[in-house]
Amino acid sequence: MTTQTLPRTTSGWVGLARSGPDAGQGPAVVAAVYRLWLVAFALKMLGSTWDMSWHFKWLRDDAAPPHLLNTAGTVIVVALVLFQAYHNVGVDKAAKRLMVGGTATFLIAIPIDILNHRINGLDITAWSASHALLYIGTAFMLLGVARGYWISTPPSRARTVVSAFIWGFFLENVLFPSQHQEYGQLSLESWLAGKPTAEPILLQFAADQIGRPVDKIAVTGFALPVDSWVYPAWITGAALLTLVAARAIIGARFTATAIAASYVAYRLVMWGLLAGTGFPKSIPPLLLLAGAIAIDIVFLAFAGSRGKKSLIPQQAGPERVAVAKGSSGLGVALVAAVFGAAVATAATAGATWLQDFFIGTPPIDYPAFGYGFAVLALGWAIIAVVTNRQRA
């Protein structure tokens, strides 16, 4: 693919934005648009990562640098959605609806979140309703991008890699709220050790909201405001399910492992940058790798037993790949879903215990892995049914 068909002047780009690409420009414009999506989400991810650490140090500020970085990515997102939706570039109806609906939800959530802070003061948890709207909007937005890119790009190694990046951004969005516990545990430990990482004005503000002095109860309420069952259930039922979906759709071997490893590597790099510049530290979720590896092994094991490349057949772009009809393939896939969920959950729980032994974890209610297993098994089974029907 060449970019020589793209405009070389400002007026040419303005014309392209107004009228859309012609037939010769189509492939190059689609490629350029989805590269810009990667840039936009990279900015949003960097902003959100910095934002979480920022809020464990200082009082909230609408114009804080992490918010501005995230806003820069959002501006690019809005421009891309308007362009693609208006000119139908690199999207079908489903992708367009997901992009537009997700972006609209995200934009509506911004004033709601600001109003929430104005009325209720400091919002000390990433698990609040107004924040959930931001995550949900971003999730739908990313699903639209994943679908749009997949159906508008011919099969290739580049499509596999870029799709993995998109699902990596989706994983980061899913895991963003659980970072509250990963930062909160170390924040509480620092305060108990007499070396708080949060500024006194932040701790005082949080304590005033519940009418207490700055004591252990107040600091715990700020640092760890949700029950200990939330973290293991979310990691298993949401993060691992994201990796299952990515593996099923992309279809490449060790997709889940590659995405999880990339996310963990990103968190470790950001840990070094943030901690090195005086920001609070977090506990990186190394435990995620065990579940990801288990997912990939289950896919490969069941695929091998059927003599095929993947357990759940993946899309191959706009075209459909014909397979033999019958209930046996779906039955095996459903068995794999339940078995795979059990193996991945057990691997994650074991890795959690090991991580806690060596570097620590947020508070963990181990029976809550059972809740995550139920969601993961159900979600994996639904993915099996949907993808099996698409290939029938």
Q: How would you describe this structure to a colleague?
A:
By secondary structure, the protein is an all-alpha fold. It folds into three domains: 20-177; 183-226, no CATH class; 228-392, no CATH class. The chain is built from 14 helices and no strands. The protein is globular, with a radius of gyration of 22 Å. Keywords: Membrane, Transmembrane, Transmembrane helix. The chain crosses the membrane at residues 28-47, 67-86, 98-115, 127-146, 158-176, 229-249, 256-274, 286-304, 330-354, 366-386.
Set down the secondary structure blueprint.
Blueprint lengths: L9 H10 L6 H30 L9 H23 L5 H28 L8 H24 L4 H19 L3 H14 L7 H10 L6 H8 L6 H21 L4 H22 L11 H19 L20 H32 L10 H23 L1
Which features characterize this protein?
mainly alpha; 3 domains; 72% helix
Q: Which range best describes the helical content: under 10%, 10-25%, 25-40%, 40-55%, 55-70% or over 70%?
A: over 70%
Q: What is the CA–CA distance across the termini? A: 32 Å
* Uncertain stretches: 309-326
Structural class: mainly alpha
What is the approximate shape?
globular
